[in-house]
Automatic annotation (TrEMBL):
GO cellular component, one term: plasma membrane
Topology class, membrane: Multi-pass membrane protein
Sequence intervals crossing the membrane: 59-81, 216-237
Lineage: Bacteria, Bacillati, Actinomycetota, Actinomycetes, Kitasatosporales
Main localization of the protein described in the UniProt heading: membrane
Name of protein: SpoIIE family protein phosphatase
Compartments in which it is found: Cell membrane
Species, as recorded: Streptomyces griseicoloratus
Length: 917
C-alpha cells in the first residue's frame, strides 16, 4: 500500500449541509423529544401546510380537489334550482293564460263595446289569485285591453303573437314593459274556431330566480361543513406522510432516487458502503469491476471478499482516507473513505475508488484525439479558401506539416489543373510540396512524374486505395521508382510513408503522400485513418476548384469570342487597351472601336452587372446592338437612347419566360471623335465618367451627364461636346478598375488620377501605369481599360467648297477637286471622284436645299462628302430600261468602296469612300 502523506488523519468535523441533512437532523430531534425553538407538532404541521414537502403538496392537492367538488356541487344545485324554477314559471304562465282565455264570457267581452272595463278587474283578480306578475288580454292586432299598470292599456303588446294568431300556444323569454320576464301567449277562439283575441300571462325573471336565491344559504352552509371535514381528514393523512418522508419534497425524493441509480450503474467511480460491523451494504457496478467482487458480495464482511489485505483492512477500519493509492492486481486505485455517523447518522463508512491507471491512459488518448480533431477542424477552415486548384493543393500540404507529417506532397493529373477530368494513363504533376526542411530529397514542384506500379503512389493511383508503409527501409517496391533518389530519402531520415488517393466520387484526381522523418514512431492504422479523413476533406475543395476552373475557362472563352480580336485600322486615334476577366467569375464588361464615316471613330465601353455565362451572353447582345446602331451614324445620345429601349424590350421578353434572368444594371459610355474638327461628343448611361489627360499632363474627369443605367428608362440622355487638343489621351474604363470592397469609388478615382499624372505619353505606357497602381492581385470584377490619344487631320488634307444651287456649278466643283487630287498625288482617282461628285452634287442641287457644300478628305481613304440642308435621303434602286434617271447612286455604289448618309442638326451628309492606291 502507498499512502499519500498529509492527506489522511483525524475524522473530519465538517457538518453535512443541504435540505435533506437539515430535515434529517430535525426528524432525529423529534424522535428524541427535543422541541428546541419553534419546532414541535405545530411546527411540523405548519411545514406540511407550506406545500414544499410531499405531505404538504398532497394536503394542498386534496383540499383543492375537495374545494372544486364542493363548488361544482353548489353550482350544479343552483343551476338545477334555477332550471326547475324557470320550468315552473313557464308551466304556470301557460296554465294561467289558458284558463283565463277559456273563462266564461271572454269572447263576449272581447266583442263588446268596452273590453277593458269588463276584463281589467277580472284579469287583476286572477293575477293576484295565481301569483303571476301580469295577465294581459289583447285583440288580434296586439293592442292591450288589460295590464297591471293601467297606463299601458291601449298600447302594443311586446312579444311574438304570430304563432298564437295561428292557433298555437307560445312561451318565450323577453324584456317587456316591466323588465325581463317569461311569458305565455294563448289564443281566444270563437264558436267557429276563429281567433278573436289573445291572452298572455307571465312572471318576471326576478321572481323566477327568487326561489334559487332563497335556497343558496343552505347550500353554502352544507358545502362549508363538507370542506371542513375533508380538510381535517387530509391534514391527518398529510401529517402521517410528513413523518414517513422526513419532510422531503417530490423533487428531492426524485433526485435522491436518480442519484442512487446513477451511483449504482452510471458513475464511473467505485462506491462502497460498509456498516459499523464491517458488512458490505452496497457496491455499485464500477466497484464490482475494479475489485472483482463476487456477485453475492453485498451482505458479507469485507474481510471475506477476497480483497488484498491492505484494501480490506482500510474498508474494515472505517477510518478517514484521502487519495490513498492501493495496488489491486494490475490496477492503481485511488481510495477515499469517510464515516457516515456524523451528526447522528448510522454507523459505518463510504469509500470511493478511482482507477488512476485508466485515467492516465484515457487522458493520453483523449489529448491525441483532441489534437487530431483540432487539426481536422483547422484543415476544414484552411483548405479551400480559394477556387484555385494549385493553391488548394498547397493549403493541404501546409496543413499536414509539421503536425501530422514531416513532409507532404500533392501530385495531380495535368488535366485536373486545367479543369478537366483526370486521364489515368498520363503522368502526374508535382503540384505542392511542404516540409520541415528545405533540403528535401523529394521531387520538386512542377516535375512530371510517372510512378511505377510497385511504388505506393502507383498502387494508390491504379487502385484508388491508400497504402501504409510503416518502415520504408524494409520495403523494396518503392525504390524501383528511382534507386538513387530512394537512397537519398533514407539517408535524409525519412522512414515511414502514407499515400492516399484524392478521390472525387469515382474519379481519382491524384495522390497525396505523407512522409515521416523526425518523429520516432512510424505511421500506424490510426494515422492512416486520419490521413484519409484529411485528404477526403481536401478532395472536395480540389474538385470544386477543378469544376470552377472548367466553367470559368468556358465562360472566359465565350467572353473573349464576343470581344474584338483586333482593333480596326483608322488614323484618328492611337489606341491601347487592356481586358482582364475576374478571377471569381466572368463578367459582362466590353469595349469597342468603331470607324465611322468622315474619318471619325466611335469608342464604346460597357458593363453588364453580374457574373457568369448570362452576363457574357448579354454583353455580346449589347455589343452587336451597338454595332448595328453605329452603322446608322447616330449621335451618341440617340444611340444610347435606342440601346436603352432595346434593353427594356429584352427585359420584358425574358421576364415573361420563367427561369430567365433580366438584363439588370447594364451601363454604357459612347463617344465619337472627329479628327477634322477635334470635337468629341460623349454620352453615358450610368457609367463612370471618362478621364482626359491633356498634352501638358493635367488630368480631369469630364463632366458628362450620367443618365440612368440601360433598361431603367424614364429619363432622357444628354450628350456633351468638347474640343480635344491634339495629343490628348481619352481614358475609358469600367467600374472594376476604380471600385473594390476595401475602398470607395472616390478613392479609386483619385488613385487613377495619380497613375495618369505619372504615366508615359503613349497609350501603352498609360495602360501599364494604370494597371500597376489599380489592378489587385485577384480582381473580383472584370476590368476593361481603353486609352485613345487623339490625332488631327490637318488642313492640307481637307478641301472644302461652297456650291451654289445651280447645275452649272457641278463642272466647277469637278475642276477644283481634280486640281486638289493632283496636289495630293491621287490623279488615278480623278475620274471616279468626278463621277461620284457629279452625281452627289447634282442630286443635292435638284432635291436638296441650300446651303450646299462639298468636302474631300485625304485620310486612309479618299472621302467625298456633300452637305445640304434637306432631311430627305436618296435610296439606291435599279432603273428600268425606259427610265431617264435613277442610275446615279447605282454608279456611285459601283465605283465607291462604301457610301452612305448621315444626318446632322443642320441637314444631312451623303458620303462615299474610295481606297487610296
Amino acid at each position: 500500500m502507498v499512502r499519500l502523506m498529509g492527506r489522511s488523519g483525524e475524522r473530519s468535523t465538517r457538518r453535512p449541509s443541504g435540505p435533506y441533512a437539515r430535515r434529517r437532523r430535525e426528524t432525529d430531534r423529534s424522535r428524541r423529544g427535543e422541541t428546541t425553538g419553534p419546532r414541535g407538532p405545530v411546527a411540523g404541521l405548519r411545514s406540511a401546510l407550506t406545500g414544499r414537502s410531499v405531505a404538504g403538496q398532497v394536503f394542498v392537492l386534496n383540499v383543492v380537489i375537495v374545494l372544486l367538488l364542493v363548488v361544482a356541487a353548489v353550482v350544479a344545485l343552483v343551476l338545477q334550482v334555477r332550471h326547475d324554477s324557470e320550468t315552473e314559471a313557464r308551466n304556470r304562465s301557460v296554465a294561467v293564460a289558458a284558463t283565463f282565455a277559456d273563462s266564461p264570457g271572454m269572447v263576449q267581452a272581447l266583442r263588446g263595446p268596452d273590453p277593458s272595463a269588463v276584463l281589467q278587474p277580472r284579469a287583476e283578480a286572477a293575477r293576484e289569485a295565481t301569483g303571476v306578475d301580469f295577465i294581459v288580454v289583447m285583440n288580434t292586432d296586439g293592442i292591450r285591453y288589460t295590464h297591471p299598470e293601467p297606463d299601458r292599456i291601449g298600447r302594443k303588446f311586446v312579444g311574438d303573437i304570430g304563432p298564437a294568431l295561428a292557433g298555437q300556444t307560445v312561451t318565450e323569454e323577453i324584456t317587456g314593459t316591466i323588465g325581463p320576464l317569461v311569458q305565455a301567449i294563448v289564443p281566444v277562439t270563437g264558436p267557429g274556431g276563429e281567433v278573436v283575441g289573445l291572452v298572455s300571462a307571465g312572471i318576471t325573471t326576478e321572481n323566477v330566480g327568487g326561489a334559487a336565491d332563497r335556497q343558496l344559504p343552505l347550500l353554502l352552509i352544507a358545502a362549508g361543513i363538507a370542506l371542513a371535514l375533508a380538510t381535517a381528514g387530509t391534514a391527518l393523512v398529510s401529517r402521517r406522510l410528513l413523518r414517513q418522508t422526513h419532510g422531503l419534497g417530490p423533487h428531492e425524493m426524485t433526485r435522491m432516487y436518480e442519484h442512487h441509480d446513477a451511483v449504482l450503474h452510471a458513475v464511473r467511480e467505485g462506491v462502497l458502503i460498509v456498516d459499523g460491523e464491517g458488512t458490505l451494504l452496497l457496491a455499485n457496478d464500477e466497484a464490482h469491476r475494479l475489485l472483482d467482487l463476487p456477485a453475492d458480495a453485498e451482505g458479507r464482511h469485507v474481510l471475506e471478499l477476497g480483497l488484498d489485505p491492505d484494501t480490506a483492512a482500510l474498508l474494515d477500519s472505517g477510518r478517514v482516507a484521502t487519495d490513498e493509492v492501493h495496488l489491486v492486481r494490475d490496477r492503481l486505485l485511488a481510495v477515499n473513505q469517510r464515516p457516515t455517523d456524523i451528526e447522528g447518522g448510522p454507523p459505518g463508512s463510504v469509500a470511493t475508488l478511482r482507477d488512476s491507471t485508466e485515467l492516465r491512459a484515457l487522458s493520453g488518448r483523449a489529448e491525441t484525439a483532441r489534437e487530431r480533431l483540432n487539426m481536422l477542424y483547422e484543415a476544414g477552415v484552411g483548405i479551400g479558401t480559394s477556387l484555385d486548384v494549385t493553391r488548394t493543393a498547397e493549403e493541404l500540404a501546409e496543413q499536414a506539416v509539421p503536425r501530422f507529417a514531416d513532409y507532404a506532397t500533392v501530385d495531380l493529373y495535368d488535366a485536373v489543373l486545367g479543369g478537366g477530368e483526370p486521364e489515368p494513363a498520363t503522368p502526374v504533376l508535382r503540384t505542392a510540396l511542404s516540409g520541415i526542411r528545405r533540403d528535401m530529397p523529394l521531387y520538386p514542384v512542377g516535375r512530371q512524374i510517372r510512378f511505377v506500379a510497385s511504388s505506393p503512389q502507383g498502387h494508390t493511383l491504379r487502385t484508388g486505395r491508400p497504402v501504409l508503409e510503416p518502415r520504408l527501409d524494409r520495403e523494396s517496391g518503392w525504390r524501383a521508382q528511382d534507386f538513387e533518389r530512394s537512397a537519398h530519402v533514407l539517408e535524409h531520415g525519412i522512414r515511414s510513408l502514407i499515400t492516399v488517393p484524392l478521390r472525387a466520387g469515382s474519379l481519382v484526381l491524384g495522390v497525396v503522400s505523407f512522409w515521416r522523418a523526425e518523429k520516432p514512431e512510424p505511421f500506424d492504422a490510426d494515422d492512416l485513418t486520419l490521413a484519409e479523413e484529411l485528404v477526403a476533406r481536401a478532395a472536395v475543395s480540389i474538385d470544386n476548384a477543378r469544376r470552377y476552373t472548367r466553367e470559368h475557362s468556358m465562360a472566359v472563352t465565350l467572353q473573349r469570342s464576343l470581344l474584338p480580336r483586333t482593333l480596326p485600322d483608322q488614323d484618328a486615334l492611337d489606341i491601347a487597351y487592356r481586358y482582364l476577366p475576374a478571377q471569381a467569375g466572368v463578367g459582362g464588361d466590353w469595349f469597342d472601336v468603331l470607324p465611322l464615316s468622315g474619318a471619325r471613330v466611335a469608342l464604346v465601353v460597357g458593363d453588364v452587372v453580374g457574373h457568369g455565362l448570362h452576363a457574357a451572353a448579354t454583353m455580346g447582345r449589347l455589343r452587336t446592338a451597338v454595332h448595328n446602331f453605329a452603322t446608322l451614324d447616330l449621335p451618341p445620345d440617340e444611340l444610347v437612347t435606342l440601346l436603352d429601349e432595346l434593353v427594356g424590350r429584352i427585359d420584358q421578353d425574358e421576364t415573361a419566360e420563367a427561369g430567365s434572368a433580366p438584363v439588370t444594371g447594364a451601363t454604357c459610355l459612347y463617344a465619337i471623335y472627329d479628327p477634322v474638327s477635334r470635337a468629341c461628343v460623349i454620352a453615358r448611361a450610368g457609367h463612370p465618367p471618362p478621364a482626359l489627360v491633356r498634352p501638358d499632363g493635367s488630368v480631369e474627369f469630364l463632366d458628362v451627364p450620367a443618365g440612368p443605367p440601360l433598361g431603367v428608362g424614364g429619363l432622357p440622355f444628354e450628350a456633351t461636346q468638347l474640343e480635344l487638343p491634339e495629343g490628348s489621351r481619352l481614358v475609358l474604363y469600367t467600374d472594376g478598375l476604380v471600385e473594390d470592397r476595401e475602398h470607395d469609388i472616390d478613392v479609386g478615382l483619385e488613385q487613377l488620377r495619380g497613375a495618369l499624372e505619372t504615366a508615359g505619353e503613349s497609350p501603352e505606357e498609360t495602360c501599364r501605369a494604370v494597371l500597376d497602381v489599380r489592378l489587385p492581385d485577384r480582381p473580383r470584377d472584370d476590368v476593361a481599360l481603353l486609352v485613345a490619344r487623339t490625332r488631327a487631320l490637318g488642313p492640307d488634307r481637307v478641301a472644302e467648297w461652297q456650291v451654289p444651287s445651280d447645275p452649272a456649278a457641278v463642272g466647277q466643283v469637278r475642276s477644283e477637286v481634280t486640281r486638289r487630287l493632283a496636289q495630293w498625288g491621287l490623279d488615278d482617282l480623278a475620274f471616279t471622284t468626278e463621277l461620284i461628285l457629279s452625281e452627289l452634287v447634282t442630286n443635292a442641287i435638284r432635291y436638296g436645299e441650300e446651303p450646299i457644300r462639298v468636302r474631300v478628305l485625304h485620310n486612309r481613304s479618299l472621302i467625298c462628302e456633300v452637305f445640304d440642308s434637306s432631311s430627305t435621303s436618296p435610296h439606291l434602286r435599279y432603273a428600268g430600261m425606259t427610265d431617264e434617271g435613277g442610275r446615279g447612286l447605282f454608279l456611285v455604289a459601283q465605283v465607291a468602296e462604301r457610301w452612305g448618309t448621315r444626318y446632322t442638326s443642320a441637314g444631312k451628309v451623303i458620303w462615299a469612300e474610295q481606297p487610296v492606291p
